[in-house]
Specification:
The complex is a heterodimer of chains A (677) and B (139). In chain A, the strands form 5 sheets. In chain A, strands 14-18-19-17-16-15 form a 6-stranded mixed β-sheet. Chain A has a 5-stranded mixed β-sheet with strand order 6-8-9-11-10. Chain A has a 5-stranded mixed β-sheet with strand order 20-12-13-22-21. Chain A folds into 5 domains: 9-136, Up-down Bundle (Four Helix Bundle (Hemerythrin (Met), subunit A)); 144-285, Alpha-Beta Plaits (2-Layer Sandwich); 288-345; 348-529, 2-Layer Sandwich (Heat Shock Protein 90), CATH 3.30.565.10; 534-676, OB fold (Dihydrolipoamide Acetyltransferase, E2P), CATH 2.40.50. Chain A contains 22 helices and 22 strands. With 677 residues, chain A is an alpha+beta fold. Chain B has 139 residues and is mainly β. Chain B has a single domain (8-136), classed as Beta Barrel (OB fold (Dihydrolipoamide Acetyltransferase, E2P)). The chains are: A alpha+beta (677), B mainly beta (139). Chain A binds chain B through residues 296-297, 299-300, 303, 544-546, 591-593, 631, 633-637, 639-640, 642, 645, 647, 650, 652, 656-660, and chain B through 35, 37-43, 46, 49-51, 53-54, 56-58, 84-85, 87-89, 137-139.
């Protein structure tokens, strides 16, 4: 069976997006209110609203497990909303809600994963319900009996048919299912009225659960209507009912009363909706791929524009170009502005990545009892969306490290005479073309001599220990096979070390620097380029090919002095630089590109390093430095394994020509693989 | 001459001294031959890549791909750009001919399913070979 209601697939994306947003909002409120004495009534109402919305939309999707879980939490907060004086144990309450929030978040992932089964929340719901009962036992008033509406009004059109729907007991929100049903019934008949009339009203669920739903409708094909109703989710029974011969007039009055009573409630609700709608309308969500396409297109417009403005045909013309030049300048201004705006659309504040950390710190505080305070600085700094996505994991790692290893246990801090609150500070700022994110703690700091000693034991020193500067010594903690904490705790020391953080950042052109003072604290500085789609490359010419080598992997550019070139017996060339031997790979030979340039001292050497392996690539000539946007090869070309063989993609340059991008890592792997085997 | 419902519209072209046709619905562009960027490590029939309005599109020399006689290209030669599984691929041909409307009866499918020729189209001007472009881009 499908996980969600059939016919709702089209809504899945929206549902998941909305759910994630609501849950993030919930976390934000919880984090904010947890420290406070009591939860402000606004926030209680907000949590209630969030849970109610999740319950409603999950019900719409037919995800009954999420719906029930949200319902149980909603109940908790409805008690608090209706009777703010109800005593409760804040810690228990928050833990229950945090758990529920985690489960719901997890479930959103499960829905998207075809292989995963929906989770059974029965036990969790039971725990929440049990606590709700504890809270309620303080004397919540019994629910007021509900006034009933009449099914068969006096003077009603005789041709109206009446359909009676009874939902099964497990259905928590029959009113929502009723709305979905009405929508599908709309295709086969004309619905004139339902009893209860107002399906949005708070009481609708109880009325439908007790008496079932009556739908008044006009239909030609009674069979089709009945079938549609019976097919609907959670419907236990659907049948036609006939109008009784004699109608009792008495219940009419309460019905009218009910309508007037329901109206203010509804109006109030609408007001609330209009309010949130007003806030939401200023923000829309767009698929990232569409923005990428837009960015590409704008890039093309800029190139085409410069092709038009500097067209050689214009120079050949005798006519005066003054007016043309004025218009051309205006056009240029506009396209520049357009480009800036498109770039800025992809920018989001780093606070989205930061705020997730408050949750991490909260959970760790609960477990470790360190009472660490998390401080944000410059969280409004904007970075490319893809940067925020990439920052998530490294930040999580650094923050966990800071709380787990950096900050000392409270008694240790007291012994050291550190009176200030244990703090982890996340800050962000923009510098030219880079975002600098700092994770700083006022904890124990790191002893660079201890690090050196340990590195020596582990055998990862590359020169005598006394030659290391403090900065270099601290850098050792980011080397593979190094972990300062010998104990494995839940939060760190699980083998995924700083080296992985560093490597992941370097993959996207970022850097990680460590600063630390013993007993004062440590600072981890992440520098990451503003936009990840742009790569700095060195362009070289090989035969008739224009090849770009990412600057990140180039160590040195030089012209060869022939006396440093050594040829071995297998006709492999080696170059000797400062007493070290590196293989020389002529790109023309590697890529089988015919070239006129035969002499090694005529062309240019690029000393490249990837994963501590170095080679010298040899090209005919140097063209220059470029910033490019990498495009993958078309699938037609990708089937020839170009990336494994050393070409990672291509890029269109400002003049419209195409450059090929060399993948130094793949080249080195191929070379060393061949030599080894 | 608006074709009737069952009519099939084909583009005819000549390359390597042979007459070919292709279903026009799969064709997105017919362009002059722009500068072609050579890409190493590929089979000889792939000429390289071109910049088609900001997209990098691979270009195949159709005559070499079909193993018909080598073709000389001049300024009247063209690249026909096909959309194959929503990926753009260009084929260089010597000359582009006409757009013709044919009825299914004029199309005789070839028995070999792996052949690069899908069918033979019989017209008053003679036979055209209907290419199977999906097969031509396979390695």
């Amino acid at each position: 069976m499908a996980k969600f209601d059939e016919g709702m697939e089209s809504m899945l994306d929206t549902y998941i997006f909305e759910e994630n947003q609501l849950l993030e909002q919930l976390d934000e409120i919880l984090m904010r209110t947890e420290k406070a004495e009591s939860i402000p009534s606004d926030d209680i109402a907000e949590i209630f609203r969030i849970m109610h919305t999740i319950k409603g939309s999950s019900s719409m999707m037919g995800l009954s497990n999420m719906q029930q879980l949200a319902h149980s939490v909603e109940d908790l907060f409805s008690i608090l909303r209706d009777k703010p004086e109800t005593p409760y144990d804040k810690k228990t309450l928050f833990n229950l809600v945090f758990d529920a929030s985690d489960s719901l978040k997890n479930e959103v992932d499960v829905i998207q994963d075809d292989s995963a089964e929906l989770t059974d929340f029965t036990q969790q719901i039971a725990r929440i319900r049990a606590y709700a009962d504890v809270m309620k036992s303080d004397g919540a008033a019994a629910a007021k009996p509900l006034p009933k509406e009449t099914v068969f009004e006096v003077g009603e059109d005789e041709s109206l048919l009446t359909l009676h729907i009874i939902y099964d007991q497990s259905c928590l929100m029959p009113s929502v299912r009723a709305l979905v049903l009405l929508r599908s019934l709309g295709k086969v008949c004309e619905v004139t009225k339902t009893v209860p009339l107002d399906l949005d009203a708070d009481t609708a669920n109880d009325v439908i659960a007790a008496d079932g739903l009556y739908i008044k409708l006009i239909a030609d094909d009674r069979e089709a209507v009945l079938k549609t109703a019976q097919k609907a989710l959670n419907v236990a029974k659907a049948e036609w009912v006939e109008r009784p011969k004699e109608e009792v007039e008495a219940p009419k009055a309460p019905a009218a009363e009910k309508e007037t009573a329901a109206k203010p409630a509804k109006e109030k609700k609408d007001e609330g909706k209009a309010h949130t709608a007003g806030e939401k309308s200023s923000i829309i969500s767009v698929k990232l791929s569409k923005l990428d396409a837009l960015l590409d297109l704008v890039g093309e417009i800029v190139i085409t524009e410069s092709a038009v403005i500097s067209s050689p045909d214009l120079k050949a013309m005798e006519a005066s170009l003054d007016r043309f030049n004025t218009s051309a300048r205006n056009l240029k201004k506009l396209t520049d502005e357009l480009q800036d705006i498109v770039m800025s659309i992809r920018m989001v504040p780093v606070s989205t990545a930061f705020s997730k950390m408050s949750r991490v710190v909260r959970d760790m505080n609960n477990k470790l009892g360190k009472g660490v305070e998390l401080v944000f600085k410059g969280e409004e700094t904007e970075v490319d969306k893809s940067v925020v996505d990439i920052l998530g994991d490294p930040l999580m790692h650094l923050v966990r490290n800071a709380v787990d290893h950096g900050i000392e246990a409270p008694e240790v801090r007291r012994a050291k005479g550190k009176n200030e609150a244990p703090t982890v500070t996340l800050s962000a700022k923009n510098t030219s073309g880079e975002v600098v994110i700092t994770v700083e703690d006022n904890g124990a700091g790191m002893d660079h001599n201890a690090i050196l000693a340990k590195a020596e034991r582990k055998g990862i020193l590359r020169k005598p220990a006394n030659e290391y500067t403090k900065q270099e010594a601290l850098g050792l903690i980011m080397k593979a096979g190094f972990s300062t904490n010998e104990n494995v705790t839940e939060y760190s020391g699980r083998g995924v070390g700083m080296d992985v953080v560093k490597q992941n950042l370097e993959k996207v052109g970022g850097k990680l620097v460590v600063e630390s003072d013993l007993n004062i604290g440590s600072r981890f500085i992440i520098k990451i380029p503003l936009s990840l789609s742009i790569t700095d490359v060195m362009q070289v010419r090989v035969g008739r090919c224009d090849i770009s080598v990412p600057i990140a992997s180039i160590k040195k550019l030089f012209r060869l002095d022939m006396k440093n070139l050594v040829r071995d017996e297998d006709d492999n060339m080696l170059v000797v630089i400062r007493g070290k031997c590196y293989p020389v790979i002529p790109l023309s030979r590697y890529f089988s590109i015919p070239t006129q340039c035969k002499a090694f001292d005529e062309g240019i050497m690029l000393l490249c390093e990837v994963d501590h392996k170095r080679v010298c690539l040899f090209a005919d000539s140097l063209i220059g430095e470029q910033q490019i946007v990498v495009k993958p090869f078309s699938p037609l070309l990708a089937q020839y394994n170009l990336s494994e063989r050393g070409l990672s993609g291509c890029s269109i340059l400002a003049d419209g020509s195409i450059t090929l991008i060399a993948d130094v890592k793949a080249i080195i792997e191929n070379i060393f693989g061949k030599q080894g085997g | 001459m608006a074709g009737e419902a069952e009519n099939i519209r084909l583009l005819t072209f000549v390359t390597g001294g042979e007459k070919y046709a292709a279903d026009i619905s799969a064709i997105t562009d017919i362009i002059e031959i722009p500068p072609i960027t050579f890409v190493p490590m590929l089979p000889g029939f792939i000429e390289g890549v071109i910049n088609l309005r900001g997209k990098v599109v691979p270009v195949i020399d159709l005559a070499r791909r079909l193993n018909v006689s080598e073709e000389e290209y001049d300024r009247h030669s063209c690249i026909i750009v096909f959309s194959i599984q929503s990926t753009a691929v260009g084929f260089i041909v010597r000359r582009v001919g006409d757009v013709i409307d044919v009825i299914p009866a004029q199309i005789s499918p070839t028995p070999d399913l792996k052949s690069t020729v899908r069918a033979v189209v019989t017209t008053e001007e003679g036979y055209y070979k209907l290419i199977r472009q999906e097969e031509l881009v396979e390695a």
